Amino acid sequence: ELLSTRDDVLKDADALIICTEWQHFRAPDFELVKSSLKNPVIFDGRNLYDPALMNELGITYYGIGRGESIRS
Question: Could you give the count of Cα atoms lying within 13 Å of 70 in the half-sphere of its Cβ?
Answer without folding.
Answer: 19
